[in-house]
Amino acid sequence: MSIDIRQEAVKQGTVEQRIVYESGNEMAAYAAHQINYHIMGYFPISPSTEVAQFLDLMKANGQHDIVLIPADGEHGSAGVCYGASAAGGRVFNATSANGYLYMLEQMPVQSGTRFPMVLNLVCRSVSGPLDIHGDHSDLYFALNTGWPIVLCRDPQAVYDMNIIALKLAEDPEVRLPVIVASDGYFTSHQKRRVMTFTHREDVQKFVGEHPPEGFQHVLDRDNPITVGPYMNEPDYINNCYQQSMAMYRAEEVFERIQQEYAELTGREYPILELYRMEDADVAVFLLNSSAEIIKDVVDQLRGRGIKAGAISPNIIRPFPAKRIAEALKHVKAVTVGDRADSYGGHGGNMVMEVRAALQQYGNSSTLVISRIYGLGGKDFYAEDGLALFQFAIDAMNKGYVEKPFDYHGATPGDPTKAPKRVLEPMKYEDLKTGLITVTPNEETGKVNVRIPPLRSLTKKPKRIAPGHGACPGCGIFSGLELFFKGIEGDIVALFHTGCAMVVTTGYPYSAHKATYIHNLFQNGAATLSGVVEMFHERKRRGELDQYGLKDDFTFVMITGDGGMDIGMGPAIGAALRNHKMIILEYDNEGYMNTGAQLSYSTPMGHRTSTSNVGKFQGGKVFHHKDTAQIMAATNIPYVFTGSEASPQDLVRKGAKAQWYAQNVGLVYGKILITCPLNWLSDDKDGSDIIDHAVNSCFFPLYEVERGVTTITYNPEEKGKRVPVADWLKMMGKTRHLNKPEYAETLREFEAEIERRWNVLKAKHDNPYL
User: Fold this and answer.
1) Distance CA 658, CA 483 (A)
2) pTM strictly above 0.85
3) Kind and range of the H or E run holding 149
4) What is the pLDDT of residue 3?
5) Nearest-angstrom CA–CA distance, 123 and 104
6) Taking the mean position of all CA atoms in its chain, how far away is CA 289?
7) Please, which residues bridge with residue 9 across strands?
8) β-pair type (149-152, 91-95)
9) CATH architecture for residues 461-765
């Protein structure tokens, strides 16, 4: 993190400050490291991921003591944070969009039991289809969770509000967890001039001692407490009433705290920021980053003689209704811009609350216009601000609102530009070659597979078209296509969110030649289970006869980029139900689609953006998950590992997987694939790296068929085993492990590889293991 570069000493307010030039995510991390929280439970999701990355880099360099806990998903990260806050420490987290919704169930639990913490919500589209850019649809889901919400229009506010938020959360009049909301990419990634406290001690003095007086927690053995009891009426409504009163008190407490902060720093954050509203006839109401742009528009209109003004709150929970009503009492018309829609509600959440505030305080004269704008990261320019003002000006001049609710910036569909099919569907006859035969062996209970020479299979059409956007040297598609060579006939494929999904489906194009489905990162296995069961039921009822189906589909779920971390629960559920489908994991050893953060499949000691290498940390600190063995423990009929470095083995296993998935039940397979970009390796070395991973016994090739383990390639018997260190030195992410200072980590990693390999050999030798 470059936070200590390009800084200038500044004296403003009563505390020593300095200037840095950093982004919103960097400033959230910087504030957290100055506070020196106890715990951060996190899970990577764009655009909030960088917050954990920056903190991990500072951790590797010994700049803070925060314990960073990588969870298996956002729901898990919220649980980590709740437990840590219940245990009496200071807790921090950051998330976005679908990740926030995944943890949503936990949010009212934490506020309802009154345990403080700070969560940075780096706002992003909650979407289907997938969009990773900024709007406020996740923020609006937060409105009813019982968390006070403060807003940040620029990186300076991100820094300041993160410090203010903790003091607000822990205030005895509040005692609630607080959300700090900033705009994804607009604020999170854009660098700006930011003033910070020079000395950490001044930050810690401002937020106060911990734990605050009277703070109850679960680690006080002399004062045992019960957290989250079962509660009937009237106790539950009374609890909610107390929480509600604390929320409303948060408005006054925030005002007091921000005034204290202003005395220290010279920076004010009034509950309602008003720009040239003293005599305004027309106004625009906006949140966060757009509220800065609209100020220039106000100045332009004032230069033309139009009395324009802008309103933007710095806190929206509690909603400053009385202050807004007061600010608008002489305004003739106001346009409220919502960066998210409340579908069917005739406007977004902010316009509804502004209208309610006006009605509550007796203002029936101000005309209110609702416009939805900027969804999915659509930029907001000065001309957009002028358009929002023009709606208000027109309403003022006419004396009524011609169109109370509409979208601004949407383009009506043009039927002449509808996407057209570029490639014709693949012919069944080309996919069903008859060159591969799979027959059950009644004596062994296994199946026998015969495959032709690989050159005979080259005429089978590829399931994924060329022209996708994968990085040079990416091993995903060569590995997938090799597996698909073993599949005869038609498939329906579901892809988890990840590199393979993102680079093949940029609308209006798709690289998928077979039917393709995408669902959320964690829920692919459950979704495909539903597809499988619907297929068999509709087939039973004769409803699919009209579609020319010549044989059953093979249903394949493709997962990677850590999808079997957040998606492990649904995958195990699907396995236990034994649906007739294949789960195929491409293992690139990280969350590569979000910037190479560690996943549970990242091996020990490997460098990622959340397991950095420095004087105080040598890469990932715990061992990788053996997903194949976990799935084998569910007693599904077939589990395998594969690699493009052993192509015939992988094709044979693909054919066997299809037979089991069509005739018996669920199959799980794992293929190791190269990621040159994030492994810091040469594009051309991918196959050699994978070959060394197999020959070092880090990634053994084997299968578990009806509970019996068979090693399908033994490098020791072939005389090809290589030292683990020889494999590690081929990648920039692991070369450090061959240095003396990381020798202990290397020894522990090598010992675990050897242990797992010996266990596997024992299982190979004994069918009852």
Assistant:
1) 10
2) yes
3) strand 149-152
4) 45
5) 14
6) 22
7) 18
8) unpaired
9) 3-Layer(aba) Sandwich (3.40)
The answer to whether the Cα torsion of 123, 127, 132, 134 is positive or negative is negative
Q: For 324-353, what is the HEC assignment? A: HHHHCCCCCEEEEEECCCCCCCCCCHHHHH
Residues 182-200: tens digit of each pLDDT: 999 999 999 999 999 999 9
Count of alpha carbons within 13 angstroms of residue 223, beta-carbon side: 8
Which pLDDT belongs to residue 443?
A: 87
Q: What is residue 4's three-state secondary structure?
A: coil
DSSP string, 501-538: HHTT--TT---BSSEEEE--TT-HHHHHHHHHHHHHHH
* Cα–Cα separations (whole angstroms), residue 378 to 25, 124, 138, 185, 417: 20, 11, 16, 11, 21
Is 80 exceeded by the pLDDT of residue 657? yes
Measured CA distances, 18 to 51, 64, 253, 263, 518 (Å): 21, 19, 27, 16, 47
At 678, is the pLDDT very low, low, confident or very high (cuts 50, 70, 90)?
very high
Note the pLDDT of residue 546: 85
Residues 182, 23 contacting (CB under 8 angstroms): no
Domains 272-407 and 461-765 are alike in CATH topology = yes
Half-sphere CA count of 473, side-chain side, radius 13 A? 18
671, exposed or middle or buried, with CB in 10 Å at 0-12, 13-18, 19+?
buried
Tell which residue, 103, 74, 44, 72, has the closest CA to residue 627. 72
Chain-wide mean pLDDT for the chain?
A: 94
pLDDT band at 2 (very low <50, low <70, confident <90, very high): very low
Q: Buried (b) or exposed (e) across 197-218, using 16+ Cβ within 10 A?
A: bbeeebbbebbeebeeeeeeeb
Name the CATH code of domain 272-407 (choices 3.40.50.1000, 3.40.50.2300, 3.40.50.720, 3.40.50.920): 3.40.50.920
Cα separations (Å) of 677 from 264, 418, 470, 680? 45, 35, 11, 6
**258-282 average pLDDT score:** 97
User: What is the C-alpha to C-alpha distance for residues 47 and 187, in angstroms, rounded to an integer?
Assistant: 10
Element (H, E) at 692: helix 686-695
SS3 assignment, position 725: helix
Q: Which residues are bridge partners to 328 per DSSP? A: none
Tokens found for residue 596: 């190479």
pLDDT, one tens digit per residue, over 373-432 is: 999 999 999 999 999 999 999 999 999 999 999 999 999 888 888 888 888 888 888 899
Question: In b/e form, how buried is each residue of 359-387, taking b as 16+ CB within 10 angstroms?
Answer: eeeebeebbbbbbbbbbbbbebeeebbbb
Residues 446 and 438: their CA atoms lie apart, in Å, by 10
CA gap 683, 470 in Å, rounded: 12
What residues does each domain of the chain span? 17-215+232-265, 272-407, 461-765
pLDDT tens readout for residues 314-358: 999 999 999 999 999 999 999 999 999 999 999 999 999 999 999
Nearest to 658 by CA among 642, 641, 679, 637: 637
How far is residue 310's CA from residue 294's CA, in Å, rounded to a whole number? 7
Question: Within a 13 Å sphere around the CA of 435, how many CA atoms are in the beta-carbon half?
Answer: 19
User: Quick one: pLDDT at residue 545?
Assistant: 86
Q: Is the peptide bond preceding residue 419 cis, with omega within 30 degrees of 0?
A: no
Please give the pLDDT value at position 672: 96
Superfamily grouping for domain 17-215+232-265: Thiamin diphosphate (ThDP)-binding fold, Pyr/PP domains (3.40.50.970)
